[in-house]
Amino acid sequence: xxxxxxxxxxxxxxxxxxxxxxxxxxxxxxxxxxxxxxxxxxxxxxxxxxxxxxxxxxxxxxxxxxxxxxxxxxxxxxxxxxxxxxxxxxxxxxxxxxxxxxxxxxxxxxxxxxxxxxxxxxxxxxxxxxxxxxxxxxxxxxxxxxxxxxxxxxxxxxxxxxxxxxxxxxxxxxxxxxxxxxxxxxxxxxxxxxxxxxxxxxxxxxxxxxxxxxxxxxxxxxxxxxxxxxxxxxxxxxxxxxxxxxxxxxxxxxxxxxxxxxxxxxxxxxxxxxxxxxxxx
Length: 281
What we know:
The chain is α/β, with parallel strands linked by helices. It has helices at about 5-25, 30-35, 50-55, 60, 70-75, 90-100, 115-125, 165-175, 195, 200-205, 210-220, 240-245, 250-260, 275-280; strands at about 80-85, 105-110, 130-135, 150-155, 175-185, 210, 225-235, 260-270.
């Protein structure tokens, strides 16, 4: 297993490169496929409908590196404060900002200077006054305790080498009764060490993925309750052949261990406690 610093450096370098490609008129893909110039892998494709993307700057759409669409599945109410962990080019932040309205606030957190620059330019183009992008790591969220109503994220927590710390930080900044509602890649059953050992696949949203039962246990250990994991896409090895082969993986050798064991999922949990005037007055 690579060290946390190694994983962080590789993620930052690859995602910074992806942001620069978008800024220069190209498109972006998730991880190894993007780094090698291959076509986008199935994890990142066809996540947003035209009604959503039509409201956004083209660069925000092109920079999407996620594995799901948390803004379509998360409950967001007018006036709420939303935080997107690993916000990239800002697509989910901008979509969330529309749903919480002028009285609400949408924060995006990213550690990559190039992505932050792209996100702020997308904010300007969208005219989103209730959006703020923060520089930082998802293991150390630069917001106060009990300050956020909803945390979203799109295929980013799996990239962290210290997921327990990420989930503890998410719990800390959520208000009592706050919701954790993220899209992430998870696994089901035993996965080959050949995939786990490749640091490139951390960036490709695969090697860092938690088993669904481990994800539940880590959320519970952080203090969350009402935990659910709902698969949204289940991947067959043929869907990711080019993606995995680009990182030097012998796809045929590992196929029996991989097929239908990786999935995008919507992960929900709640921080215990009351929320809002109905229970806190």
